[in-house]
Design goal:
The complex is a heterodimer of chains A (113) and B (122). Chain A is built from no helices and 13 strands. In chain A, a hairpin with a 2-residue loop joins strand 9 and strand 10. Chain B is an all-beta fold and 122 residues long. Classes of the chains: A mainly beta (113), B mainly beta (122). At the A-B interface, strand 7 and strand 12 of A face strand 10 of B.
Chain lengths: 113, 122
């Protein structure tokens, strides 16, 4: 199984500041034939289903604000949230869909300081 | 708009079975794979498998393949998950989710159901 390791487990950021979340896969999830990283990011607010933020590591999902960005390749990926707002309080998950079983990171809880 | 509406909460006894439904609307049901993901209380996300709504062919995560069944009814544009031999470890919210790209098996999930809470308790 491909293990997805997120860091940190939680972080507290002041309003308007930047939040950075890391995700590392236990093996490369870059498919060389199409040069795509099989990596997605989701935001899950309390009591809600996950919401897609990025797929192919950096392709923004529908309606996702531009202050969110996804980057990385191979085994190391980053989700950056610029100018954090109160509405960004949530748990963020990375997800690999390169190999079966599909797996998720353990989640990173974002709080406001 | 595209929607996945799931059936209501269930309470089952250990050893029983549960069936969760996922009613889709707003798109061509047979064009997109449906995956199932569960989340135990306070825990992370666990992928369970997918169904090809066009062919009806399922693919199960090895962990669940002995006691899980995924089916669909194209006339109702609904996918179903059945899980057997329930234990307390199966208490979780069960989500159906649609792939982002048509006719693509291994993909991110752009539309999620609201979730169905399944509680297993004697």
């Amino acid at each position: 199984d491909i293990v997805m390791t997120q860091s940190p487990d939680s972080l507290a950021v002041s309003l308007g500041e930047r939040a950075t979340i890391h995700c590392k896969s236990s093996q490369s999830i870059l498919y060389n034939a199409n040069d795509k990283n099989y990596l997605a990011w989701y935001q899950q607010r309390p009591g809600q289903p996950p919401k897609l933020l990025f797929y192919w590591a950096s392709t923004r999902g529908s309606g996702v604000p531009e202050r969110f960005s996804g980057s990385g390749s191979g085994t190391d990926f980053t989700l950056t949230i610029n100018a954090v707002q109160a509405a960004d309080v949530a748990v963020y998950y990375c997800h690999q869909y390169y190999g079966t079983p599909l797996t998720f990171g353990g989640g990173t809880k974002l709080e406001i300081k | 708009q595209v929607q996945l509406v799931q059936s209501g909460a269930e309470v089952e006894k250990p050893g029983a079975s549960v069936r969760v439904s996922c009613k889709t609307s707003g798109y061509i049901f047979t064009d997109y794979f449906i995956h199932w993901v569960r989340q135990a209380p306070g825990q992370g996300l666990e992928w369970m498998g997918w169904i090809n709504p066009s062919s009806g062919a399922p693919y199960y995560a090895q962990k669940f393949q002995d006691r899980m069944s995924m089916t669909r009814d194209t006339s109702l544009t609904t996918a179903y998950l059945e899980l057997n031999s329930l234990t307390s470890d199966d208490s979780a919210v069960y989500y159906c989710a649609r792939t982002t790209t048509a006719a693509t098996t291994w993909d991110a999930f752009d539309i999620w159901g609201h979730g169905t809470m399944v509680t297993v308790s004697s």
